[in-house]
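Question: Hello, beginner here. Any chance you could explain the protein record under this note? Any guidance would be welcome.
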Amino acid sequence: MATTILSICPELNYTRIALSEDENIIYQCKITHSKEELVLFENNIEQLPFRRDAIMMQLRKDGVNVKSIQYVIAEGGLLRPCNSGVYRIDKSIIGDLIDGIGGDDIINLGGILAFTIANSLNLKSFLIEPSSVDERSELASFSPHISLKKKSQFHVMMHKYLSRKYAASVKKNYEDINIIFCHVSERSVSVAAHKKGNVVDVNQAFMGFGPMGLCEIGTLPASNIMDMLFIKCYPEQEVLKFINTKGTFTSYIGTSSLDEIAVMFKNNDKKTKMIMEAMAYQISKEICSHYASLDGAVDAIILSGKIFSLNRFFKYISKRIENIAPIMAYADDYTFEAMIHNMLQIVNKKVEVESYD
């Protein structure tokens, strides 16, 4: 009998859902939320009832038999530092997601939505690869000040899933090779050094540092933040929006939609081209830095994200890094595929559920 899974993936302005039987996706939908709807909520957690109702309404509208669902799953979440794997969502995880123990981000809403919907259907819910997985070396996690901590927060699921997929394609084990992995999401960028199955170094992609993304600013000089807070006296929420949603393309050309950016890029809009080249330059530098993280022993470089379907952007980066190691690009969206694969590993008892202590 097939295993039926409901997968939930919230983004800033929409929520994606998919229903699968074993590894086959039989239904998926993108529920768009207007600015007029979202402006009513002060933070991400307040959106819970609104997004939950939108999901259930969409499923009913499209004639999906919710009684067929066996598991409800979501990706990631900013939790306490933890191990890579799949977690049963419980009150401890929900409490940390609501409290924003690792930070306030829309990705936290995924686990809460999965838990809430699963409870209403009397089902189990699971979190796939929390975004706060920490496998860094002591040197990589060292902070320049004793009272501050550098966080390991990145696109864990895509890094792990596609690294294993690549390893299998070259008939090797993920645990036996070294990879520099770059994922560009619709918002931010994470670049990591994978050494024999562990992410030994990575930039903090959520509210942290690293290359600029489509709307998240990445590394910003500390003096700029100080000016915003203490000289210009920006409110906290304005600073958060500045860092998370109003940077890079949004600030320069008024949109962070990759589809819109791609059109302008292909039409040789000068401003768009300049930002794309700058973003590619920053990503290339970050990738090259991990040559040192892996002591010069790099088996492959993996580039992941829809943006790499733009050939010119791919070339902006590849020409700077091609001498380090062979390059593999995954430009398709593997989100649901990765979520479902991880859950089936649990269902088929190939791996065990991780414990969130």
Observations:
- The chain is about 40% helix and 20% strand.
- The longest strand covers residues 24-32.
- The radius of gyration is 20 Å.
- The chain has a mean pLDDT of 95.
